[in-house]
């Protein structure tokens, strides 16, 4: 069953959307497919950069979509240059077409062959990771997510532990949480920048975010248009912005959302402060810890590739999680020497650098 007629083609919404939604419904069920439909509309109708089509490639059999992979356009600062890239995301092959037609592989090879600089998402399944790597994407060292337990009883109950181990874990996590909350309280009580919640970010701060981002060798560009679309206007998830200001000027922001709809974990998908500005990072973090604790989330997770930020996280009682996030890049070699691509501290990467936090139950 080699099925040579199954070719990868660009996605045209008018032509493919209906059968693509059917594929989603078969795979995820109607309710989740409906959430995904809202996410797709938000991408196709509102996302800055959506004119960089195609936003997806598909394989269709007799007019019905049977496999698909999305591309999220973004721009990165790479050593001071603004460079367009695409994230590969949202790979799915109809169950009846898995295996021999090699549709997953065809979509991957197509992603590299179109010549665009690509980065693969952080929450890939094992199969997706292998497909990326076997098709020629470059695997990088996994990224680490840091987690703070805010509800020790719930947190321990999520693990399959003996009664004695669960008890020891609850005791330890209760002590860590007490230290973390009192540290957050102290940090917020110190003189320094002010942190407050805002619904949307004002474009007047864009030049400041650009200046901060340029302090990192490699990071995605961020402006109000992108941040408001991605977080404030999300169709299914409720994010908040914490904005730090010093003397009336912005000093940094942090985006977070509390746990939601059966999820237990709160997440920080993005933050930006000037490199090494651990004081502002600490304040933003202290604010978000207090907010997510008050909202009743079981834990709080955040990712960073910056060693100084990881140190701050450890001081607050965050611990690096056992499972690490695989990620890959393709067609980057013309821009950067290998050792730069592979060195974490040259990047400012966050959980929002993947589609994992776009879908409702990531
Ligand atoms: C992952 C998926 C896209 C593979 O599609 P496919 O068309 O069967 O893939 P191909 O036949 O082209 O390639 C299969 C490769 O994946 C590997 N693979 C397939 N299913 C796997 C699994 N469950 N676990 C580990 N590896 C798997 C195969 O061994 C093969 O590896 P190889 O390239 O070394 O031979 C498909 O199973 C799928 O849609 N899964 C559900 C959605 C999903 O997990 N998407 C990824 C989200 S990050």
Could you provide a short overview of the structure?
The mean pLDDT is 93.
Describe the structure.
The chain folds into two domains: 8-141, Gcn5-related N-acetyltransferase (GNAT) (Aminopeptidase); 145-323, Gcn5-related N-acetyltransferase (GNAT) (Aminopeptidase, 3-Layer(aba) Sandwich), CATH 3.40.630.30. 37% of the residues lie in helices and 27% in strands. The protein has eleven helices and 16 strands. The protein has helices spanning 13-28, 30-46, 103-113, 126-135, 152-157, 163-189, 206-213, 224-232, 278-294, 307-315, 338-342; strands at 8-10, 56-61, 64-78, 81-93, 118-120, 138-143, 145-149, 194-198, 218-220, 240-246, 249-257, 265-273, 299-303, 319-320, 325-330, 347-348. The radius of gyration is 21 Å and the shape is globular. It starts with 7 loop residues before the first strand and ends in a 14-residue tail after the last strand. The model has no long low-confidence stretch (mean pLDDT 93). Coenzyme A (COA) binds at residues 91-93, 98-99, 102-105, 124-128, 130-131, 134. Residues 91-93, 98-99, 102-105, 124-128, 130-131, 134 line the site of coenzyme A.
């Amino acid at each position: 069953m080699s099925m040579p007629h199954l070719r990868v083609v660009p996605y045209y919404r008018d032509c493919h959307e209906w059968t693509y939604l059917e594929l989603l419904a078969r795979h995820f069920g109607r309710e989740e497919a409906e959430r995904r439909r809202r996410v797709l509309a938000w991408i196709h109708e509102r996302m800055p950069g959506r004119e960089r089509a195609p936003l997806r490639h598909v394989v269709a059999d007799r007019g019905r979509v049977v496999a698909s992979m999305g591309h999220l356009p973004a721009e990165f600062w790479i050593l001071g240059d603004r460079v367009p890239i695409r994230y590969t995301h949202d790979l799915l092959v109809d169950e009846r077409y898995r295996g021999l037609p090699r549709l997953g592989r065809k979509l991957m090879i197509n992603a590299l062959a179109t010549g665009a600089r690509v980065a693969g998402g952080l929450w890939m399944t094992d199969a997706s990771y292998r497909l990326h790597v076997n098709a020629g994407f470059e695997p990088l060292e996994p990224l680490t997510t840091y987690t703070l337990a805010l509800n020790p009883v719930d947190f321990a109950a999520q693990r399959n532990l003996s009664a004695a181990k669960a008890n020891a874990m609850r005791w330890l996590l209760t002590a860590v949480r007490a230290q973390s909350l009192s540290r957050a309280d102290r940090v917020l009580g110190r003189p320094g920048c002010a942190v407050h919640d805002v619904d949307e970010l004002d474009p007047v701060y864009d030049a400041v975010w650009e200046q901060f981002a340029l302090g990192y060798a490699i990071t995605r560009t961020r402006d109000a248009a992108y941040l408001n679309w991605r977080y404030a206007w999300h169709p299914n998830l409720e994010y908040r912005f914490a904005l730090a200001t010093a003397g009336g000027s912005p000093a940094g922001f942090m985006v977070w959302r509390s746990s939601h709809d059966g999820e237990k974990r709160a997440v920080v998908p993005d933050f930006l402060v000037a490199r090494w500005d651990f004081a502002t990072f600490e304040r933003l973090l202290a604010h978000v810890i207090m907010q997510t604790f008050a909202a009743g989330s079981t834990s709080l997770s955040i990712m960073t590739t910056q060693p100084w930020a990881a140190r701050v996280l450890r001081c607050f009682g965050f611990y690096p999680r056992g499972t690490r996030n695989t990620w890959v890049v393709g067609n980057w070699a013309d821009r950067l020497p290998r050792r730069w691509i592979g060195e974490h501290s040259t990047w400012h990467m966050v959980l929002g650098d993947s589609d994992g936090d776009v879908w409702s139950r990531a």
